[in-house]
Amino acid sequence: MEKGKKKAQSPEWSQLDSDLLVDIFNRLTLTDLLAGVSHVCEDWRMAASKTRFFLPGTGLDLRLVDALPPKEIAIYINLLRSCLLTETTQFDHVQLPEEVILPNDVVIAIARRSTAVKSLQLPQISVNHFSPSLLAKTLPFWTNLTSFEASSSRSTAVACIRLLNLHCNNLAHLGLYGLIEKRQAQAIVSYLPGIESLDIRTSFFSESALDIIIDGLKNLKKLNLRHAICGDDDDMCDFTLKVLQGRGAKKLKKEVRDKLKSLEQLVYCGGETCRSCSWFYKVDVDHIHV
């Protein structure tokens, strides 16, 4: 090396570009990431919070949180909370955990950072967690939604449907999974009359509820009834208990089946002829379709 020339100095680790740090940290295990890297300095902590969960571009996928050991879940949620408070990126799609229930303040922070989201599927485990009070705080940020799917709680479904009507004027697809009675059906028709696609697969629904939906949703083009079980209109909670005992499920009436033929797309497993559903009808499984 010639005299007078100084050796080029490499930047310190703490000064590395955040995108480069994220690329490096993506090569580590989640345990090393959360137990070690995140405690080095604030810059590394922020980069660690983006690793594995912040998708390339502007996506946020939190489903990997479900795979974390219980002790590390709280660490990551704290990292995520810190990042959301300082992150300015707007996410255009979000995937929430399927099993881990995020604290309300984290969910609200995610909503603030995802106003461009058009499709949202709430995890089924959170049927009681995503209450009307929480949706009232998040849906004002999700006004661009065209598709919304969530589990249906008998006590909160109508209030949630009203909130969708209030904040999501472009909604075209609705997915509700749980118990669909006349009350819920009337709310869908009254508050969301313009939806074109309805998914109630794996749900328990009453005959009159389906009638209300078919007659009331004039723009309905697609209906998913896969593995959904039809029952009487009396007490649907009592009906659910009967179904779980292998009795009480009803075949769709001919007039209802005729109405369903007018739809552009119908997904229906066949009810009593479906291997997965035949038990509810007490049908001989040796004579049904796969």
UniProtKB/TrEMBL annotation:
InterPro entries: F-box-like_dom_sf, F-box_dom, LRR_dom_sf
Protein name per Swiss-Prot or TrEMBL: F-box domain-containing protein
Residue ranges occupied by any F-box domain in the UniProt entry: 13-54
